Structures are given as structure tokens and as C-alpha cells.
Amino acid sequence: MSTLRIEHRTAFTYEAPVFSSYNEARLTPAWLPRQRVLESRVDASPATWRSSYRDYWESEVLVFEVLQPHERLTVVGSSLVEVSSVPAREERVTWDTLTGPRFQDLLSEYLGISDVTEPTDELAAFARDAAGRMGPDATARAICDHLHDQMRYVPGSTTVHTPARDAWEARSGVCQDFAHLAIGALRTVGIPARYVSGYLHPKRDAEIGETVSGESHAWVEWWTGDWFGFDPTNDREVGDHHVIVARAREYTDVPPLTGVVAGSTTDLDVQVRVTQVE
Q1: Residue 51 lies in a domain
Q2: pLDDT tens digits, 101-112
Q3: Of 17, 9, 23, the residue nearest 260 (C-alpha)
Q4: Could you count the other beta carbons within 10 Å of the beta carbon of residue 106?
Q5: Is it the case that residue 263 has pLDDT exceeding 80?
Q6: Is 149 exposed, middle or buried (CB count within 10 Å of its CB: 0-12, 13-18, 19+)?
Q7: How far apart are CA 76 and CA 40, in angstroms?
Q8: Cα→Cα distances 6→27, 104, 236, 272, Å
């Protein structure tokens, strides 16, 4: 078990004064059996109005607008979260159960393939071959292992709008691309899969109280009798250094920060700082 303090700071600097902006922020960690949110707040400066709601995917969303001239906008999400590891488990469902009408209906939202998650023919063929030789959990793990072996993590090599198949063809991408590729391949063989956004403490051997540059991160969960989290970018099971903020079909359902600005282009600076306090 780990207790992590997280600060996610996003600063927009405009070339000329902006007179209005309308924004949504999903920066609040989720309350889950494996994680307890001890403290959490999201601050936006400036902001002339703010409210919050829980969206369809059960994510906590801050809505705020700025209706005054401003040359800079800063959004800071701060939280203290206690995270437990997920115990290892045995495979619990067969292909017959997984592909039966009951779960195909109940989990249909996590089985559809969109333009964002559609795999290439090559990756889909790998997934089908694995499914023909192994059970659902082993197939899912093989897909993630394959992505980690074939892909390079290259910051800045893609954008939030890059389709998964383009990242595969380039054999490079960021965590979002690894997650979308895994989701598309898993769904191709009938394994329900969802996109998870959150934070990763990247330094396993960090001392208690040591603050490090963390990551706004993304990984996957697949359903084989229960949801199971896996980080294909780092090729490891999700543990007590992963903090969940939102879960949905794909990135576009739960972007961390989105909005509309009436004004000039911007300079963007994002910093995530993580401290393990226990």
C-alpha cells in the first residue's frame, strides 16, 4: 500500500488577452475499493464561475468559465490518495462465457471499435492468433506484451487526436497510444476493455517524502470475470503506484482538461509532481 500526494499543474499563457474561456477539468482521483481519496481539490485561476458534476462515466468534473480579460490561466489539481495493490488472481472465465450473449450485451460499450481504437490488420491478426491458442487472460497479457516489444515510447511523437493504427505503423507513441492499441486488439477478439486515465509514480525506489516528476498516465483494464488493470507502456500490472482518475471507452470520453477559448494561441506548460508520504 502507498499513500501518494499528487500535484498536477497546467498553465496556459496567451499571446494577447483572452476575453472568455469555458473549460472542464477531470483531475480528481476516483473513490474505489483499491484507492481512498484522503484529500482532493481543483483550483482554477482566474475563474468567474465554477460548478461540478459527475459525468456518465462516474468521473468528477469541474466546470469553470473566465469572463474577464486574462493573459494566463492556471489549473491545479491537488490530491492525497491511499492506493492498494491488486492481488494476483487466477483466470476465471472461458471464451464461451466471455463471448456469450449475456456479457456481450452488458459490456457492449467496451466492445465497440472506433476510429480511435481500430487496430491494423497486422495487430488484429496477432490478437486472433493468440486467442486461438490461449485463454482470455493470457491472450490479453500477450497482446500487451507484444505492444511493449514492438512499440517505442517517444514523448511528443503523437497528439491526443492520433488514431491508434497510425501509432502502430510508426511503431512509436505515448501512453495513450499504447492504451488505445491494446483496447482495439482486445475488443477485436471479444474481450471487453476500457481506457483508464490517472497518474503514475515512476520511481519505485523513491524514498518516503521524496518529490519526483510524475506522469499523467493512461493504461487499460480488461474484463475476464472482473476488471483487471494492466499498463502496456511499462508492461506491468497496475499496482499501488497507479492512481485512477477516470475510466471510459477511450481518451475522448474523459480528457483531463478541455475547453473553448475566444482569443489568441497559447503556450502550454504541464507539470505533475508526486510524493510518496507513506
Answers
A1: yes
A2: 888 888 999 999
A3: 23
A4: 11
A5: no
A6: exposed
A7: 11
A8: 10, 37, 21, 7
Over residues 122-174, the pLDDT tens digits come to 999 999 999 999 999 999 999 999 999 999 999 888 888 899 999 999 999 99
Taking the CA atoms of residue 234, residue 274, residue 38 and residue 36 in that order, the dihedral angle to the nearest 10 degrees is: 10
- CATH code of the domain in which 194 resides: 3.10.620.30
Number of H helices, E strands in the chain: 6, 16
Same structural domain, 228 and 119: yes
Does residue 163 have a cis bond before it (omega within 30 degrees)?
A: no
Quote the pLDDT of residue 235.
95
- Distance CA(197)–CA(186), nearest Å, equals 18
Express each pLDDT in 170-227 by its tens digit: 999 999 999 999 999 999 999 999 999 999 998 878 889 999 998 799 999 999 988 9
Determine if the pTM surpasses 0.90: yes
Predicted pLDDT of residue 151: 95
Q: Is residue 89 included in any domain, yes or no?
A: no
One domain for residues 225 and 171: yes
Q: Residue 113: give the domain boundaries.
A: 95-253
In this structure, the answer to whether residues 141 and 202 fall within a common structural domain is: yes
Count of domains in the chain? 2
Beta-sheet pairing, 266-276 with 211-213? antiparallel
Instruction: Specify whether 140 is located in the same domain as 230.
Output: yes
